Recover the amino acids of this structure.
């Protein structure tokens, strides 16, 4: 069984040491960085499976480091913030964070969240979460979604989606016209073990919608007070 490799980025050595103790108990290999610049360098050389990133750090903060890392790598990131403000959490999600925790936090809960995120990013589980049929293709006016190839084509142009964005789009597209609440999408796309909140859905819908709109396609509608639905005008 492959050992899970996690990069922990925090300028406090005491925090890193506490996390290391819990990681050793759960057979998780830990790589350490003390700021965003070092995090980027270690991501390039060590290829971690997941990153735990503090927000407030010297030289380069966690938000900027996450932005730079996601320009090149599709690595899940759990953000740590001491502020606990909604603005910080939403901004982190908009920059591609997969989850977040507020300091002070329980190392045991951190390990649980890491395992939950890692389960969600496994190719086999990703496939079963969206459609257990690699040949499934959804075609709409100007929009083609190929499940097996994990491709989205709009008016002839391929659009790159992160794994969870793709799964969300497929889940909505396979039932056009159906209205889903945020809670239903959290349960059906993220899974029962997801520890985030409904704002996670809003952030991902916004990102999917922006990417489609950039290529001239609008198909995800907001149903105010309820949630979202997929609908393409013929």
């Amino acid at each position: 069984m492959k050992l899970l490799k996690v990069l922990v980025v925090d300028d406090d050595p005491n925090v890193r040491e506490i996390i290391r103790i819990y990681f050793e108990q759960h057979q998780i290999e830990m790589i350490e960085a003390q700021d965003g610049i070092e995090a980027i360098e270690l991501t390039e050389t060590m290829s971690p499976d997941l990153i735990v990133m503090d927000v407030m750090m010297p030289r380069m903060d966690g938000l900027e480091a996450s932005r730079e890392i996601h320009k090149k790598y599709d690595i899940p990131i759990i953000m740590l913030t001491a502020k606990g403000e909604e603005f910080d959490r939403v901004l982190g999600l908009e920059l591609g964070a997969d989850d977040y925790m507020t300091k002070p936090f329980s190392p045991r809960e951190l390990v649980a969240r890491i395992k939950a995120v890692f389960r969600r990013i496994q190719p086999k589980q990703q496939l079963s979460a969206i459609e257990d049929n690699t040949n499934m293709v959804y075609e709409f006016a100007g929009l083609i979604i190929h499940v097996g190839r994990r491709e989205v084509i709009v008016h002839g142009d391929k659009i790159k989606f992160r794994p969870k964005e793709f799964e969300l789009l497929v889940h909505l597209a396979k039932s056009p016209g159906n209205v889903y609440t945020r809670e239903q999408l959290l349960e059906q796309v993220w899974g029962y073990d997801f520890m985030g909140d409904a704002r996670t859905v809003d952030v991902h819908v916004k990102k999917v919608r922006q990417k489609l709109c950039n290529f001239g396609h609008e198909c995800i509608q907001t149903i105010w007070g309820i949630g979202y639905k997929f609908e393409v005008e013929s």
In short: Confidence is low (pLDDT under 50) at residues 123-133. The CA atoms of residues 21 and 107 lie 9 Å apart. The longest strand covers residues 4-9. The first helix runs from residue 13 to 25.
